[in-house]
């Protein structure tokens, strides 16, 4: 009799503890909702992104501060010099100047298979292929690129146009010679290492892909006209 | 004999409970951080994010203030010299084109969300596996005459690249998450026509289940490129004077 009573009491007490403890914890937290862990990762990513943007803006502010100091005592001749230097700098980044440096020359050509029953269009070069190769080269630090002498800037889109690719409003036939300025070894690895898109084009699709590291290549400037029809600068104030 | 069995059972259950609780605790801790509960952590992160965004706002204002002051000096010099005026305008044009100036204009906004997970799929489809379609969309926008493009308010420039980093897409060296918002300034009818075409990247992505909204807007603002760029290998070709 005693043993059952004691066991019964312990049993009831355990249940009571099991109810009270979670209730207490919930009260301490306040909110009952459980935030999915993926949201937390996304918010963390946003936080990191904003932090790095803030650092960059800080650097730009320092540059402008210095420039303001220069301008304060400047006369017209100095202003001209400062403006001309700024223009050259932006032209270098924007692709409007010829650039030279070490880099990689890459040639991509269709496979030389002739048409037969098994032929499908995977053995020719598509615009998506060039697009992915260009992206890979950028990730590997390419600072300037051209396809068959056409400088690639942010508005250069590589488009399929029947037997040719259309870049910067010009029709370019195969073979597609791509010049890229950067660290020659890193660029070469981005195309030739196992697992890269360049390797897949060679081994998986049978396209002819050849690359050559160079100490010195020259990439021409973007030479289409600069027409601005839709965008306006935003004059920001205090 | 019986008491040994029952004691053994109790010990086994306790060990199991202990292991389960420890694993659960560790999993949550590794994502959320020591001693935090997800709701709390999220609230703190959101607060930090709001603080950082307002700090970024203030810094951007300070930057444009400085630039306006610089502009004023340049303008004074322009009054005295037509050549300076020409240079100023030229500089502005190159800046807008290359992405170093905030711009606005008519254009289109494309919002992309991951497909909804229906319980029958074995794998969860996310934009991370299909990021080359984002590059295709940009290509279509450029061919249709886009003058400025941004993804999640990061300006697209000649140096912008896209990679996968863990569970996220990295663009301009920063992780971007869904919804992916692509904004473009340019001829809206052309955008709608090329992107609305059958088998356009948008069409293909919708087939895979992505939720895509395209809205045309009379005024879209696209921010400037905020990365600091230094050439390490390329240099301008020195011309012999």
From TrEMBL, chain A:
Q: Is this entry keyworded Mitochondrion?
A: no
Give the signal peptide range.
none
- Keyword list, A-Z: Coiled coil, Membrane, Transmembrane, Transmembrane helix
Name the domain of life: Bacteria
Q: Which positions, given as ranges, span the membrane?
A: 6-25
Q: Which Pfam families match?
A: DUF881 (PF05949)
**InterPro entries reported for this sequence:** DUF881
Please list the coiled coil stretches.
40-74
Give the protein family: Belongs to the UPF0749 family.
Could you tell me which PANTHER family the record lists for this protein? UPF0749 PROTEIN RV1825, UPF0749 PROTEIN YLXX
The identity of this protein, by name, is DUF881 domain-containing protein
TrEMBL record, chain B:
List keywords of the entry alphabetically: Coiled coil
InterPro entries reported in the protein's UniProt record = DUF881
Which residue stretches, if any, does this entry annotate as coiled coil?
42-90
> Pfam families, per this entry?
DUF881
Asked if the record carries the keyword DNA damage, the reply is no
Family indicated by similarity: Belongs to the UPF0749 family.
Q: What is this protein called?
A: DUF881 domain-containing protein
